[in-house]
Amino acid sequence: MAARYLEILRTRHAARLLAGTLVGRLPNAVAAIAVLLFVRTEGGSYSLAGALAAVYGVSNAVGQPVLGRLVDLLGQPRVQLPAALVSALGMAVFAFTGIGALALAYVLMVVAGFFTPPLEGGLRALWPTVLRKEDQVHTAYAMDAVAQEVMFTVGPLLVTLCVSLWSAQAALLVLNVIGVLGALSVVVSRPSRAWRSAPREAHWLGALRSAGLLVLLGAFLFVGIALGSINVAAMSYADDNGGDVTYGWLMAAIGLGALVGGTVYGARQWSGAPERRLRVLVTLLAVFYVPLTLTPGVVAMAMLIALSGVFLAPCIACSFVLVDRHAPRGTVTEAFSWLVTTFTVGMSVGTGLAGPVVEWGGAVSGFALPGVAGAVALLVLLATGRVLAATGSGAVVEAASENDRNGAPEPRFSTGHQA
């Protein structure tokens, strides 16, 4: 199983790009927790802390596709590093000014969120130029999804460690400095400096003019809703079954399930059309959400939640392949950024929906939402199967002639299609 992953990590630049991207995305992964802890230590209310974190999240969702389009137009170093610096500066000013001036605090959250660099989309655009075979890129997508689960598990622990060793203010500063260093590691690498998006057709919709991409975004909006609703339903369940400790174990369980599922999925080469494979994976995802409504004891519940997470990372990895196929020529970074944005918005919607549902019908009703949302995601894929299966003419992600002068590796297969 490990051989396919080791083969990729031994490829020149691959380990550095993966590690740099994960480290660079650390501030985004822990922003909500870090902001909540900081606002509370400043004497702010839970409502204020939640509102500031929400503003950061919404601004991030808006900024990702905008910055992704700029990356496609201008290249990675000209966008990724300046954006990382501006985002970190916004968070640093917030750490020093606190919540004394609320208007300024909200503005700083907008700045920090909006300018979060689209490193996630950037990495997926780089894989085809670094790896030799298409199946290696598919494995890299799975490895990417697995690595994210690790980051979202380790990230909160790093926040609490910084807070316990120093302070919540120091946590904001340290984590954002680390994030800038991660972004710097990526953009000074040869693949990032040499990468150029394929020539693009000027169109105000950019990547969104692809019908296939819109289908994927529609489906993954509901996958995000499912995941967001689980977070709230699990909290309601934990309130009656051990409190915060139980909630922590349940959240770790879904991360563990996704980690195992993504690892197994990426360790083998899959045949057949990825469109059909995605429908199967989303079906399994929806089916394994249903037993959560049983709400058994804590140990059994943790096992059920872990099983519900097994197909999450494979779904995400498979979607990366399809985004790559359906992104119009010259918009691959923007297209991946739209997927990130849609999934984030879906999680926020799921959290908002689950709140009143849980208040009305308890944890059982809350855990019914993921199954419903998963079923809707599947219906979207089934109803639009022909659209998703229709790919246009191949568009190789070509580096400009400058790439050859810089010695950049040549892409060896098609990585995008004109929609």
UniProtKB/TrEMBL annotation:
* InterPro entries for this protein: MFS (IPR011701), MFS_dom (IPR020846), MFS_trans_sf (IPR036259)
Q: How does it sit in the membrane?
A: Multi-pass membrane protein
List residues of the Major facilitator superfamily (MFS) profile domain: 212-419
Entry GO CC: plasma membrane
Location, primary (coarse class): membrane
Annotated spans, Disordered? 400-419
One Pfam family per UniProt: MFS_1
Alphabetical keyword list: Membrane, Transmembrane, Transmembrane helix
Instruction: State the Gene Ontology terms under molecular function.
Output: transmembrane transporter activity
Keyword Heme attached? no
Top-level division of the source organism's lineage: Bacteria
Transmembrane stretches in the record are 17-39, 45-63, 84-115, 166-189, 210-234, 246-266, 278-294, 300-323, 335-354, 360-383
Q: Where found, per UniProt?
A: Cell membrane
- PANTHER family assigned to the protein according to its UniProt record, in alphabetical order: MAJOR FACILITATOR SUPERFAMILY (MFS) PROFILE DOMAIN-CONTAINING PROTEIN, PTHR23542
What is this protein called in UniProt? Answer: MFS transporter
